[in-house]
Design a protein that fits this description.
Distance between the termini: 50 Å
Strand order of the largest sheet: 1-2-3-4
Number of helices: 6
Radius of gyration: 17 Å
Shape: globular
């Protein structure tokens, strides 16, 4: 803001979680995940909106959620925080559209990153549960975010865009059908 006088785009991408059965998540563990994923996103969004977006009557706020949107075993704390981000994006779009501010949630699925490697799962095993039969890339998610922040998406607000190879639509009950070559 000091250099350009305004901040027009904000991508809230802070988050973190640990794997644990729901009954083993402590109050402190729950709060730590929510402070990072939800509370920090709200604090930063409110700060940027008050200082730049509302006075300048323009802006795009993107929250990073996650897919599958119905949750995952071992991640109840993270799924709850990310679901709250989806609802925050929708609520802000209803309130801040009057200021020319758009608010959107992007929910990536299983993305091939160093962060994913920490869970020690076999990428091929993860890919079997995705209709496109592969993991996504950070570049694919970034491309969607770039589009949503562009003039081409000027009429998009208050929604969640899922970037997950069809995993959220398919569900987790059984493997999807094989790809047709």
């Amino acid at each position: 803001m000091e250099r350009f006088g305004t901040l027009d785009l904000l991508v809230n991408n802070a988050g973190g979680q640990f794997t644990a059965p729901a009954e083993q998540i402590s109050r402190n563990g729950w709060r730590a995940v929510h402070r990072l994923a939800l509370d920090a996103a709200w604090a930063l969004t409110r700060h940027v909106a008050e200082r730049s977006m509302i006075p300048h009557r323009r802006g795009v706020v993107v929250f990073i959620g996650f897919s599958p949107r119905r949750g995952m075993p071992g991640f109840a704390h993270a799924a709850a925080a990310r679901a709250a981000l989806e609802n925050l994006a929708c609520g802000l779009s209803l309130e801040w559209s009057r200021f020319g501010i758009r608010s959107i949630c992007v929910s990536p699925g299983t993305i091939a990153t160093e962060g994913l490697e920490q869970y020690g799962a076999d990428p091929a095993r993860w890919a079997r549960g995705i209709p496109m039969q592969r993991l996504g890339t950070a570049a694919e998610v970034a491309s969607v975010i770039a589009f949503l922040c562009s003039p081409g998406a000027a009429y998009v607000t208050g929604t969640t865009v899922v970037v997950d190879g069809g995993a959220d639509a398919w569900g987790q009950s059984e493997p999807p059908p094989p790809l047709v070559p």
